[in-house]
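ARCHIVE CARD
CATEGORY: sequence design from structure
SOURCE FIELD: tokenized fold
FIELD CONTENT:
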């Protein structure tokens, strides 16, 4: 265990203090809320805990202990959350363990990273459109659905850029003109 991880200490032999219990309860509540939007509950639990933990980072094994979850489940979840931009990996030189923390603005990070997935979907629709014979009336409905799918993804990509710019402007205004 790392020296700076209060949560890991409380996950071991000693009992967690009241504030740590509140952080864990928040993670559980966030997991339930996350699952109600269709996401895996474990993703919500991990994000929830990383948002409120006191330490700057936590190891995979410590996170599993705090959440009372298997290391395999936490490992799979952190990989997905890294890919979507909600969390980031923290490296300690010479240490082979994986450490994680939440982005200070995980929502903006997610919004920026989601465009990558939207672009992949748009390309998938485009590849399928290239395979459809445009003159065949039997595939007109399929073509229309694919064109709408491709164009919707492109529209979302462009809209994401505007939303991210609006979000950054909102934060500057909220923070009295200071950029973070």
């Amino acid at each position: 265990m790392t020296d700076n991880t209060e949560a890991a200490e409380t996950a071991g032999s000693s009992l967690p203090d009241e504030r740590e219990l509140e952080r864990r309860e928040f993670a559980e509540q966030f997991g339930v809320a996350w699952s109600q939007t269709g996401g895996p509950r474990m993703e919500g639990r991990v994000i929830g805990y990383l948002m409120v933990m006191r330490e700057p980072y936590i190891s995979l094994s410590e996170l599993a202990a705090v959440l009372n979850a298997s290391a395999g489940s936490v490992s799979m979840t952190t990989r997905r959350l890294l890919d979507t931009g909600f969390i980031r990996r923290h490296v300690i030189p010479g240490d082979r363990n994986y450490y994680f923390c939440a982005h200070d603005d995980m929502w903006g990070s997610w919004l920026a990273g989601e465009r990558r997935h939207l672009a992949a979907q748009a390309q998938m629709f485009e590849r399928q459109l290239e395979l459809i014979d445009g003159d065949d009336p039997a595939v007109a409905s399929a073509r229309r659905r694919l064109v709408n799918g491709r164009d919707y993804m492109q529209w979302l990509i462009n809209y994401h850029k505007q939303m991210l710019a609006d979000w950054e402007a909102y934060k500057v205004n909220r923070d009295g003109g200071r950029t973070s």
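CARD ANNOTATION: Residues 106-174 form one domain. DSSP finds seven helices and three strands in the chain.
SHELF: design records, drawer C
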